[in-house]
Amino acid sequence: MKLGDVPTELVDRVRDRLATGRGELTPQRVADALREEGRPVGDATVLAVHEALRRDVVGAGPLEPLLREPGVTDVLVNGPSQVYVDRGDGLEQTAITFADESAVRRLAQRLAASGGRRLDAATPYVDLRLRDGTRFHAVLAPVAAPGTVLSFRVPAVRSFNLAELQTSGFLSDIGAELLAGIVSCRLAFLISGGTGSGKTTLLRTLLATAPASERIVIVEDSAELRPEHPHVVSLEGRPANIEGAGEITVRQLVRQALRMRPDRLVVGEVRGAEVVDLLAALNTGHEGGCGTLHANSAEEVPARVEALALAAGLGREAAHSQLAAAVDAVVHLGRGRDGRRHLEAVAVPLPDDRGLVRMVPAATPQDGELVEGAAWQRLHALLRERS
Questions:
Q1: What is the Cα–Cα distance from 1 to 34, expressed in whole angstroms?
Q2: 248: which DSSP letter?
Q3: Number of domains within the chain
Q4: Kind and range of the H or E element at 202?
Q5: Are residues 199 and 172 in the same domain?
Q6: Predicted TM-score (pTM) of this structure
Q7: Coil, strand or helix at 231
Q8: Residues 337 and 302 placed together within one structural domain of the fold
Q9: Across all residues in the chain, what is the average pLDDT?
Q10: What is the pLDDT of residues 241-256, one digit of tens each?
């Protein structure tokens, strides 16, 4: 008997019987439960039911093979019958399905519990990092439709180097040289882009090119960067526990990082009030700092920073003034309709007559190569000054 041939109701009844007793999940206990159900106990049946239950209590269940597949960056579950995977070329639906909505819900609740988090009708959503580093997010039905929705962001097994990003088409030769120069000259920069555009991948690659003598202190909501560098210290935020206590915010960790003698302060993803502390740090001698930021284009980065800063109590004029003084360049990434990631622009923040920052392109891609923009000379002047 194959795994897919096992009746769901039989597996459920065996599960209920095993739950009333103690002991590990073993084929022998499954066989005993099947006998109590009055079912024929053949080796094939026992092994099929055992495997169905094992998948239900170990790892990510039927999703485990996808999460372990090389090249997979995301696994998405929309209810019991829709499972998608992203192997770097966009989403594609897989043949994997769950028996029913209850199976998806059980998996979500088990993974949440493994991270010490609550997931039920009172708290129908959760976001956490699993023990292997996978970022896990879930929203239970009926809040989510067409059923419980799961999202897995799979950490890269290894870092890419600039040459590999060039070979893949992510960067052109000129683009790779320009970004390497930004890092080696210790310019402060932000990497912007949408979800899945490769911000973390590129930042991880660039940090690996920093001199081995430098101390890199990374602050993240969920640890994902992990650059291949000999001196990296990572600080990770923590959500509140079930009682609502114990939260550690990224902003708090940025302040702690400044006391740890960083040669480079890195905020893995700027998404809240920590933007104020990061800009302040970059304005007080912490050269070479960097981070990532969600934005639709390089031109929209000032508005994004302004919105985050305003929420933290920093006024518009002050936010723009801090941004202009703190950040030397913005590297914007995009993702084409074919799902491939690429460098879209390198821009320089410049204040206008009102003191508000606008992003001026220094380099933009054309026919697979970077061409000079209006701020090209400005960026090269910065590189010469810091070299």
A1: 15
A2: B
A3: 3
A4: helix 199-207
A5: yes
A6: 0.77
A7: coil
A8: yes
A9: 88
A10: 767 788 899 999 999 9
* Among the listed residues 87, 167, 71, the one whose alpha carbon sits nearest the alpha carbon of residue 338: 87
Output the CA torsion sign for 9, 13, 16, 21.
negative
Contact 174, 343 (CB under 8 A): no
Q: Is residue 3 scored above 60 in pLDDT?
A: no
Q: Which two tokens stand for residue 145?
A: 């439709």
Record the tokens describing residue 97, joined without a space.
């399905």
Q: Give me the mean pLDDT over the 47-62 stretch.
A: 69
69 with 203, same domain? Answer: no
pLDDT of residue 2: 42
Query: Which residue in this structure is represented by tokens 């194959």?
Result: 2
Contact 314, 322 (CB under 8 A): yes
Structure tokens at 337: 């309709």
Rg (CA), the chain: 25
Please enumerate in sequence order all residues whose Cβ is within 8 A of that of 103, keeping only pairs 6 or more positions apart, or say none: 56, 61, 80
Instruction: Specify the CATH number for the domain of residue 103.
Output: 3.30.450.370
Residue 70 predicted with pLDDT over 90 = no
| Assigned token pair, 209 | 């090119």
